Amino acid sequence: MTATTRTIRSVKTPANYESIAWKWMRYSAFLLIPLVWGHLILQDVVVGVHNMDLGYVADRWANVGWRIYDGLLLAFAFAHGVNGLRQVLNDFIHKPTGRLILNWGLFIFWLSITVIGFIALIGGVNQQFPLQ
Amino acid sequence: MSALKTTLTGYAGYRGREGHWSFLLHRITGLGTGLFLTIHILDIAFVYLAPNLFMDAIKLYQSTLFGIGEIGLVFCVFFHGVNGLRIAYIDMFKPAAWTITKQRNWTRTTLIIALILWLPATFVMVRNLLIHNFGLFGG
Fold it and tell me: How large is the ipTM?
């Protein structure tokens, strides 16, 4: 009996927009596992939504470490989500014109929400303390 | 519109068992999480842009309906994460395991791990709801 060997073929192709987007889906996914799970366990389970108000956000954001954490979440989670939505919609939209509109539409959507998020993250809680 | 119909009937009618179900579940959990994330960025933006609206949003999140949604969201995030890790792990370290029979077991294991992560979190969230919204356990 002759031995057979498995060879894994790999083909090098130049990077393009879609392959870069695909790679970043995966890189961001690895980052998001600790970031999002940590956020979820802390906010929804340990603290709980019933213990939250403006003061809670203010206390949390008084620590620059948490602002950086939330900034990373905002940057990576939302980009991962919008690109995921783009991948899903590519299943339904096949024509080049449609995809062009889709890509630009989602890019503008992603940019506006991300900018709004960072404005709040940098601006902080916009209320005098102690609360009335 | 025909692309919509073809794709949707494909999603529904394809009989790929575990692989098909985990594909659908990955999409649904991803889209669900993305929907909430969009709303969540905007409600947190209220702390700067409109603090009074933020308090209204928090009150809404404390309602029983949103509490149930929160429990669903936590499942979405855990399943999407565990399933994503499965795909990345097999791609990078075990490409020989990309066979239908092997992935049937991997997929079931993925669901079980997600449920194991989800159940204790759900216990705490249900308890919080019962305490704060129904006055049980001395709430």
Answer: 0.92
